[in-house]
């Protein structure tokens, strides 16, 4: 483990490997590069004013947009299934089954709670949703250099909410491609069903791109990938994609002592304590030189 940039919040797990990967990225050029990123707590801050902001859907839940009984029922699902999601003692197979169960139930709850597209648009203006420091600059660099950004999110209200949030920030650029859960809406904007397959924390990987040929065709020859995530399972976003070089950058936002060794085994670079995206901005600028 090494510390670089004089920043105790940046850890490179294998400096020699990282430098070799970076050199490969520089030699192959920008046209071979794409970025694959989670959204919640990766491109956005994990904490705002000292409060944990776990997901886009939590804003919808906690700020009273739906029926009065929705927050209580949603929190009950979270308390039951999130403990399963983060448990080291439950097999991947069992987790995968139960995560699908969780979100299938939650989507039906959202529909039963009269979810409307206008609720999502309003919720995405919440002061509790804030880009991680320097993410706006990161998005501008990707746009200016025509580097595709694939946002792969298992957030319950993903595609519509992410697009709405980026639009509010004037960052919904043509190079950004969103793969996430989405709803079908009636003429009044009410959710009536969810599109399949359901994407959750245990099955979000780039094989999902096969269902989005317009996105796949954009990145299929861009086999140098920078992956950004905040959970161990986020590294599986790359599963099934035939990459040449991969730099995995993980945000370890909390419970650092307990999780550090596990994250070090999975990620090439760790950004600790909900810190900024400065390292990624600097990395891209170096690759683009």
Q: Terminal Cα separation, in Å? A: 27 Å
Elements, N to C (H/E): EEHEEEHHHHHEHEEEHEEHEH
Could you name the CATH homologous superfamily? HAD superfamily/HAD-like
Question: Stretches where pLDDT falls below 50 for ≥5 residues?
Answer: 1-6
Number of helices: 10
Instruction: Give the tally of structural domains.
Output: 1
Helix content: 40-55%
- CATH 2nd-level architecture: 3-Layer(aba) Sandwich
Globally, the shape reads: globular
Biggest sheet overview: 8 strands, mixed
List the quaternary state of the chains. Answer: single chain
Which structural class fits the helix and strand makeup? alpha/beta
CATH class reads Alpha Beta
Named CATH topology: Rossmann fold
Give the helix/strand layout.
Elements lengths: L1 E2 L6 E3 L2 H14 L4 E5 L9 E2 L2 E2 L3 H7 L7 H17 L5 H21 L4 H7 L11 H10 L4 E5 L4 H11 L7 E5 L2 E3 L5 E4 L18 H7 L4 E6 L15 E8 L3 H11 L2 E4 L5 H11 L1
Parallel strand pairs: 3-6, 3-10, 6-7, 10-11, 11-12
Antiparallel strand pairs: 1-2, 2-12, 4-5, 8-9
């Amino acid at each position: 483990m090494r510390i670089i940039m004089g920043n105790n919040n940046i850890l490179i797990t294998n400096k020699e490997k990282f430098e070799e990967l970076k050199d490969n990225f520089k030699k192959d050029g920008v046209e071979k590069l794409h970025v694959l990123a989670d959204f919640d707590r990766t491109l956005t801050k994990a904490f705002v004013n000292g409060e944990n902001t776990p997901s886009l859907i939590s804003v919808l839940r906690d700020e009273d947009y739906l029926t009065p009984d929705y927050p209580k029922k949603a929190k009950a699902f979270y308390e039951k299934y999130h403990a399963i999601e983060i448990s080291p003692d439950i097999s991947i197979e069992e987790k995968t089954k139960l995560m699908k169960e969780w979100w299938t139930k939650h989507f039906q709850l959202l529909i039963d709670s009269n979810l409307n597209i206008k609720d999502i648009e309003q919720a995405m203006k919440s002061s509790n949703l804030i880009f991680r420091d320097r993410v706006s600059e990161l998005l501008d660099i990707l746009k200016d250099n025509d580097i595709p950004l694939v946002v792969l999110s298992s957030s319950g209200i993903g595609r519509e909410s992410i697009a709405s949030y980026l639009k509010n920030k004037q960052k919904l650029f043509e190079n950004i491609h969103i793969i996430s859960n989405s709803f079908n809406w009636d003429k009044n904007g009410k959710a009536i069903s969810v599109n399949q397959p359901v994407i959750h924390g245990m099955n979000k990987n780039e094989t999902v791109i096969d269902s989005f040929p317009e996105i796949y065709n954009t990145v299929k020859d861009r086999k140098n990938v920078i992956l950004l995530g905040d959970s161990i399972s986020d590294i599986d976003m790359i599963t099934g994609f035939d990459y040449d070089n991969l730099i995995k950058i993980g945000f370890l936002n909390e419970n650092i002592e307990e999780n550090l060794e596990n994250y070090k085994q999975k990620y090439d670079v760790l950004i600790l304590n909900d810190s900024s995206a400065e390292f990624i901005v600097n990395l891209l600028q170096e690759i683009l030189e």
